[in-house]
Write a structure and sequence with these properties.
This protein is of the alpha/beta class. The protein has 14 helices and 27 strands. The strands form seven sheets. Strands 4-3-5-6-7 form a five-stranded parallel beta sheet, with helices on both faces. Strands 12-13-14-15-16 form a five-stranded mixed beta sheet. It is globular and about 70 Å long. The protein starts with 9 loop residues before the first helix and ends in a 19-residue tail after the last strand.
């Protein structure tokens, strides 16, 4: 088969040819070059194939951020199989659910997680091979023909060249499970073409280059985290990979030590950094790009972040696992449109529809529809959910993504997220979109985090309840916040109850779990 049509793993092959000795990955005190990463991935691919892995088989990678997880990702692709990254914090019950859903043939797992995976793996009849990285106690799994050390299996392979190419670009590259913040997680099916298109589009508007040093503290099982690694390899850049975000001081010291230029984060990470930045700190001038994807940068955080990263451009972005990314806000528009998530990413088309599927104009609220080559193929094993989300597009035979997100465009076609259709509730007979109230609360100096939900009420139908986390030392009280809401919101949107809490419940990916607040 010819190699002319690119596949995702070609990013690594090309990087190893162009910059063989360049350091691709730094993790703690370890580092690996592009040529060594490519060779190790190729040997892992051969080791998996030797144990019966076939084209299209699913391989679960259950490991923390590290060189082993990155190697396994590329190795599974080189073997012509489908990668399923699973967060190492996943509990046994959920792991069993995922294994039974995607029916993997093989599992690559960190040795420290054997206690978590043993019971779940025993209930997964599709598993034939388990490769264990690092050290662990001997494990026996009924029905699994091979439970071996990944290091031993790789060392037995004499060739560092990847096996013969089998896949084409419409084959699945990964099944990426949603966080399940609004219910059970669903397996999003993404092809090589989906992921190549997404990576190219994001690299274009972020202007990532080979000299960049990208830090990633987000789980590789989270698409935002995984794409930091993919885009780094695409550009022959260097990735500084951490297992998680620890303490602000350690994180900032890491940025200085590694001369980091790109900092991707989520609202919870930036909230912790700005809380810490109330103490005098020296700005980090090497950072040229800061990105946030779960929500726009709260205006109350921007002064601290700009002082922390004085040379940086700040990108607010918005997307879903089902299409990777929808929009970005050009940094020059951040001050004049702070609540917007921006314009469509390159090679993507967006529009809004009402409940009857009719297109809407500017300043009307409707469901966001996404058209482009980044749109997923569907949900693994769930044709019903797929049919609800992917629907016929403008051209015969094509499908577009109905996101379930309520949004509006302004007169300049900049997008504003109003809320989730499944989170909108009625109070006093009026529809309430929590995101509009949350934006007002987050703009108040002294508010670190906010979440709004509807709670059953005999008189109102649903009462509006706001949960607020304050910055350390803040003197805000309920009356002060209520006055702000009365000034900026319609009367029907003013919270009935404002409750101060120390923290908000989140998923492994840092998204607020609103179902845990509705009690």
């Amino acid at each position: 088969m010819h190699d002319a049509v690119p596949l995702l793993q070609d990013y690594l092959r090309h990087a190893a040819q162009r910059k063989p000795s360049k350091i691709a990955l730094v993790c703690a005190e370890r580092q690996v070059s592009y040529v060594d990463l490519a060779s190790h991935a190729a040997r892992l691919a051969r080791a998996l194939q030797r144990r019966g892995l076939e084209r299209g088989d699913r391989v679960v990678i259950f490991a923390p951020n590290g060189i082993e997880a990155v190697t396994a990702f590329w190795g599974v692709l080189e073997a012509g199989a489908v990668v399923v990254m699973v967060n190492p914090l996943t509990k046994p019950e959920k792991l069993a659910l995922l294994l039974n859903d995607c029916e993997p043939t093989a599992l690559v797992i960190d040795g420290a997680l054997t206690t978590t995976f043993a019971a779940a793996a025993a209930l997964a009849p599709s598993l034939r091979t388990v490769l264990i990285t690092g050290t662990c106690e001997p494990v026996h799994l009924e029905g699994v023909s091979a439970v071996v050390s990944a290091d031993v299996a790789v060392a037995q392979e004499t060739s560092g060249e990847p096996p013969a190419r089998q896949s084409i670009d419409i084959d699945l590259a990964t099944i990426m499970y949603t966080s399940g913040s609004c219910g059970e997680p669903k397996g999003v099916m993404l092809t090589h073409r989906n992921m190549l298109t997404a990576a190219s589009s994001v690299v274009e508007y972020l202007d990532l280059v080979g000299d960049d040093v990208i830090v990633n503290v987000l789980p590789l099982a989270f698409d935002y985290g995984l794409y930091q690694m993919i885009m780094s390899v695409r550009q022959c850049a260097r990735l500084v990979l951490e297992r998680s975000f620890g303490f602000p001081t350690e994180f900032l010291n890491l940025l200085r030590k590694e001369h980091v230029t790109v900092v991707p984060g989520v609202p919870t990470l930036f909230a912790l950094l700005t809380r810490f930045s109330e103490r005098p700190i020296e700005g980090i001038s090497t950072v040229r790009t800061v990105t946030s994807t779960a929500a726009p940068f709260p205006t109350s955080q921007l002064p601290s972040l700009r002082a922390m990263f004085p040379a940086a451009r700040f990108f607010s972005m918005y997307g879903l696992t089902e299409c990777k990314r929808c929009t970005y806000l050009p940094p020059e528009d951040l001050d004049r449109k702070p609540d917007s998530v921006g314009i469509a990413i390159p090679n993507t088309e967006l529009w809004l529809v009402d409940d009857d599927g009719q297109r809407l104009g500017a300043n009307q609220v409707g469901e966001l529809v996404v058209r482009g080559a980044t749109v997923m193929q569907g949900y693994w094993g769930d044709p019903g959910a797929t049919a609800r989300t992917l629907r016929p597009g403008p051209l015969p035979g094509e499908q577009v993504l109905y996101t379930g997100d309520l949004c509006r465009f302004d007169d300049e076609s900049y997008l504003y997220v109003v809320g989730r259709k499944d989170q909108v509730f009625k109070s006093r007979g009026e529809k309430v979109a929590p995101a509009a109230i949350e934006a007002v609360l987050l703009a108040v100096s002294g508010v670190r985090e906010a979440a709004v939900v509807g709670v059953p009420d005999e008189l109102l139908g649903n009462a509006i309840k706001a949960f607020v986390v304050l910055e350390e030392g803040s003197n805000l009280d309920e009356n002060a916040l209520r006055r702000v809401c009365q000034k900026r919101l319609e009367s029907v949107l003013i919270p009935t109850v404002i409750q101060f809490v120390d923290s908000l419940p989140t998923t492994d990916n840092g998204k607020i779990k609103k179902q845990d607040l509705v009690v």
